[in-house]
C-alpha cells in the first residue's frame, strides 16, 4: 500500500470537490485557513514559507511541523516533533555538512556500532568530560603519538599489568618524587641520594570492571530474544540423566 492521508479535525474548514461532478461522491481536497484556524505564520511576512503543520489531539496543545523556507539567502528546511522522531534506513545513510554542525542532547546519548567504526579529525579534537570516563577494551589497545604525550592526574596514576610492565625510552628515564630523583640513561643509573632498603608501597586505585550500567543494559538487550528461545526449548525438552537410565537398564 502507498499514498498519503490527512484526516481533517473537528472545527477545520475544508474544500470539497466531487468525482465527475457527482454529489454522491464527495472528496475533501484540502483544509483551509479562516479566522478560527489562521495560517501557521503571519502573511504576507512569511509568504516564501511552505508549511505543513498538524495539531495534537485531543486537547490540541502541541503540534508537529515541517516547513520549507525559500527566501533567498535564508533557505531552510525545518522539522519539529512534539514528542519523538524515529528513522528506519534499510541500507546506507550519508550526511554531508558544508559548514558547522551543532548537536545538543539534554538526556542520554547511546550509540551501538555492531562492526567497525572509523573516524578522522582533520584538526584538533577537544573533549571535556565533567564526571567519570570509562573505556573497556576486550582485546588490545594501541596508542601512537607523533610528538609528546602528557598525562596528568590530580591524585594518582595507577598502571597495572597482569604479567610484564615495560618502560622503554631511547635516551633516558627519570623518576621524580618527594624532591628525589632517579635517572636511567646511557651513562648509567644515577640517584639523588643513596638507595636504602625498606619502605611501604602505596596501594593503587582499582580499575572498574565492565561498562556503566545503562550501556551494559543496552548491549545485553539484543540477547533477550536468544535467552527466551533457550528457555522455551528447555521447558519443552524432557530431562535426561545418563546414570539414572543405566540403573534402570535403559540406554542413555
Automatic annotation (TrEMBL):
Q: Which InterPro entries match?
A: Gp5/Vgr_OB, Gp5_Vgr_C, Vgr_OB-fold_dom_sf
Q: Which intervals hold domain Gp5/Type VI secretion system Vgr C-terminal trimerisation?
A: 50-158
Highest taxon of the lineage: Bacteria
Report the Gene3D superfamilies cross-referenced here. Gp5 N-terminal domain
Family annotation (Pfam families): Gp5_trimer_C, Phage_base_V
- Record-annotated Gp5/Type VI secretion system Vgr protein OB-fold domain positions: 2-32
Q: What is this protein called?
A: Uncharacterized conserved protein
Organism, scientific name: Pseudomonas syringae pv. actinidiae
Amino acid at each position: 500500500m502507498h499514498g498519503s492521508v490527512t484526516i481533517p479535525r473537528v472545527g477545520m474548514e475544508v474544500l470539497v470537490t466531487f468525482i465527475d461532478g457527482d454529489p454522491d461522491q464527495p472528496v475533501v481536497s484540502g483544509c483551509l485557513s479562516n479566522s478560527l484556524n489562521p495560517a501557521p505564520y503571519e502573511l504576507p511576512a512569511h509568504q516564501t514559507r511552505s508549511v505543513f503543520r498538524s495539531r495534537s489531539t485531543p486537547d490540541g496543545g502541541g503540534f508537529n511541523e515541517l516547513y520549507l523556507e525559500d527566501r533567498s539567502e535564508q533557505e531552510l528546511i525545518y522539522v519539529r516533533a512534539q514528542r519523538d522522531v524515529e528513522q528506519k534506513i534499510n541500507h546506507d545513510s550519508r550526511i554531508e555538512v558544508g559548514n558547522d554542525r551543532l548537536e545538543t542532547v539534554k538526556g542520554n546519548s547511546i550509540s551501538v556500532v555492531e562492526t567497525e567504526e572509523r573516524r578522522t579529525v582533520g584538526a584538533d579534537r577537544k573533549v571535556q568530560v565533567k564526571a567519570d570516563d570509562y573505556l573497556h577494551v576486550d582485546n588490545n589497545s594501541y596508542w601512537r603519538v607523533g610528538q609528546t604525550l602528557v598525562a596528568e592526574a590530580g591524585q594518582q596514576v595507577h598502571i597495572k599489568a597482569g604479567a610484564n610492565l615495560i618502560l622503554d625510552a631511547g635516551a633516558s628515564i627519570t623518576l621524580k618524587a618527594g624532591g628525589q630523583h632517579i635517572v636511567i640513561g646511557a651513562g648509567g643509573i644515577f640517584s639523588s641520594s643513596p638507595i636504602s632498603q625498606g619502605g611501604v608501597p602505596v596501594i593503587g586505585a582499582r580499575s572498574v570492571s565492565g561498562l556503566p550500567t545503562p550501556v551494559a543494559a543496552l548491549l545485553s538487550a539484543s540477547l533477550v530474544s536468544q535467552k527466551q528461545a533457550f528457555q522455551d526449548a528447555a521447558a519443552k525438552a524432557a530431562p535426561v540423566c545418563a546414570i539414572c537410565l543405566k540403573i534402570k537398564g535403559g540406554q542413555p
